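Researcher: Good morning. I'm working through a list of sequences from a screen, and I'd like to move beyond sequence-only analysis. For each chain I'm collecting a predicted structure so we can compare shapes side by side. This is the next one on the list. No need for commentary yet; just the structure.
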Amino acid sequence: MITVLIRVTHGPEALAATLSALVPAVAAGLVGDAVILADRPDDTLAKVADAVGATLVVAERGSWTEGARVARRDWLLCLDDGDIPQEGWIRVLDRFVALSSPEQGLARMRRRQAGLLSAFNALVAGSRVRGGDLVHRQVLTNEVRARMPVRLSATIERDPVFG
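Model: Good morning. Structure tokens for this chain:
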């Protein structure tokens, strides 16, 4: 099982879109819990978190590290609100988690590139954790240094409403 960390920047509507895309993974037994990361207190986000049984963490710029500290599982799927994993992602992540060690530490779902700027930004990001990454908790808490990310065959897209 994994914990999903969702960084909120677009608001409760984008969060709801991402949470609804995770329901099949909960039913399949891949996702065990969720942590919602916000950069400031928000009553609506608190209500959404409570309704879905997620933990709400208020941290500067929605820090992945702060989310890792309260996560219940060792493997963490980092998403930005509005991210929608595409068909087949559950099987791919489940297999990676079952076969990988903490030393592997970082895997990246594919994103459809929106041009050269996006491709350049992905290259520059390197082993820095970003939305769409599956990461071991020890990488986020700096106990293990991440290698270059493994490219997963699973795809993730942004809901077009939230850019």
